[in-house]
Every structure is written in structure tokens, then in C-alpha cells.
Amino acid sequence: MRTFDFAPLYRSSVGFDQIANMMDRVLSTDGTTPSYPPYNIEKLDNDSYRISIAVAGFSDADLSVEVRDKSLIVSARKAEEEEGKTYLHRGIATRAFERRFHLADHVQVTGAAHVDGMLHIELQRQVPEALKPRQIEIKSDVKAIEKDVVDAKSVN
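That's the Hsp20 family protein sequence above. Prediction below.
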């Protein structure tokens, strides 16, 4: 596997630590990403997303959805199995799992629902008004521009 050195990026940029850390994290995985449980990530519109995770065999009490340090952490632990059950075939996996999703800036988890063996997690990007683009009015009146200019006087 190829490794990349991001040290020059750290030395020559300010404020891009998150991007470099994310690239370092993605490139450092050895390709053994877990495939259980399967999930989908949907983009519903420009600022809305949904993560759907197949959690057949788990009840609401077995599931946990938590947001911590810009990460969405979904985990499940099955309660102890009832004694006395004998399975001839056990194809429904109910093993414990933990899935982590890194959240971008201003992405908030707005809700979660467990329906028909699927855990749906709703996400919304909520950009503050101060960061949204705004249109600046262009004036053509010369007097308005001169009014805003401050005259500087010589001190000496």
C-alpha cells in the first residue's frame, strides 16, 4: 500500500487541518472496512440527508445513536439470548456493532426512527446566517461614496 506524507501540507497551510486529517484517516485504512450492518446514505435535497442502516433482529432498546466530536456513532448490543432456544439455522446476524460517520461542519442530526428493521437517521445542514452568501448592493451615486470617505489631516 502506498503511503503519503502530509507534513508539507501542515507546514504551508493554516486552518486546513481537518481536510488533511480526513485524507490521512481515509488513506491509512487497510481496506478491511466492516461491511456489517449494510447501510445507505441518501441525499434528499441540497441540505438534507438520510442514513439508513439494516438492523434486523434489534429492538429500539438494543440500539444507540450518539453524536460526539463531529462524529455520528451508531451502535447495537443484543440483550442476552433466551435460554432453551435451539436453532436449526441461524442466518439473522444479531452481533454487536459500532458504525461511525464523520459529520461535516454545520451538519446536525435531527432525528432517528426504527421502522421495519431499518434505522433511519435524518441529518440537516444548518449554515448560520452569518456564513450564508449575501448580495451587496452596488450604488452608482458618487456623493454616496464621497460621504463615506474620511479626510486625513497631516499631523506635522
